[in-house]
Specification:
Blueprint (H helix, E strand, L loop, with lengths): L12 H12 L9 H11 L4 E6 L5 E6 L3 H16 L2 H5 L2 E9 L5 E2 L1 H14 E14 L2 E12 L5 E13 L2 E8 L8
Parallel strand pairs: 3-8
Antiparallel strand pairs: 1-2, 3-4, 5-6, 6-7, 7-8
Length: 188
């Protein structure tokens, strides 16, 4: 079977309806046990690359390489420090001349400017928490999607904030970061 003169073949109405009915019925799914769910999640995780090298004519050496393992570990440290609201742990992650940009504002440069930015944010809220929604780490970049909830000091209003943080990494430290969110959500 094929196509002639650029026209698609057409099924008779009864045949087409039966074909749609067969496709439209999803197979019944059984609930997965916890072990099966964990196994399925582990199957989705990227497997580390395995490289086999011949060291001599008779000896082979298998080396597992995962170029993003250190970057993912740093991303987890960012998440842990943020969730715990641990400023000392957070500042340890930054390079001395870090460039940090919030929404539409000009970037702050250096650890001193970053400390001032943190202090201004802390003065703007009475309490708050951020939880990670998703995270990606590859090459020299970490991207974290955050869900934040905070009480604004000026009005007492609770603000829900969705934010995307992009961290650029060099030599194991954050050298540049950008935060994307709607600044209007933080207005008193």
């Amino acid at each position: 079977m094929g196509m002639r003169s650029g026209k698609a073949l057409k099924l008779k109405k009864g045949v087409a309806k039966r074909a749609v009915k067969k496709v439209a019925k999803p197979a019944a799914k059984k609930p997965l046990a916890k072990a099966a769910v964990a196994k399925k999640a582990a199957a989705k995780a990227p497997a580390p690359k395995v490289v086999t090298k011949t060291v001599t004519n008779t000896v082979t050496k298998t080396v597992t390489t995962d170029k993003n393992a250190a970057l993912r570990a740093l991303a987890q440290r960012i998440v842990d420090a943020t969730v715990a609201n641990d400023e000392a742990a957070m500042f340890a992650l930054y390079a001395d001349q870090v460039e940090s940009q919030e929404a539409n504002n000009p970037p702050s440069v250096g650890l001193h400017a970053l400390r001032e930015k943190f202090a201004a944010f802390a003065a703007m809220i009475t309490d708050g928490a951020f939880l990670p929604r998703s995270m990606a780490a590859d090459g020299k970049t970490i991207i974290i999607e955050w869900d934040g909830r905070m009480t604004l000091a000026a009005s007492g209003r609770v603000a829900e904030l969705r934010e995307i943080a992009v961290h650029e990494i060099e030599n194991g430290k954050i050298v540049r970061e950008r935060f994307y969110y709607d600044p209007a959500l933080l207005a008193p």
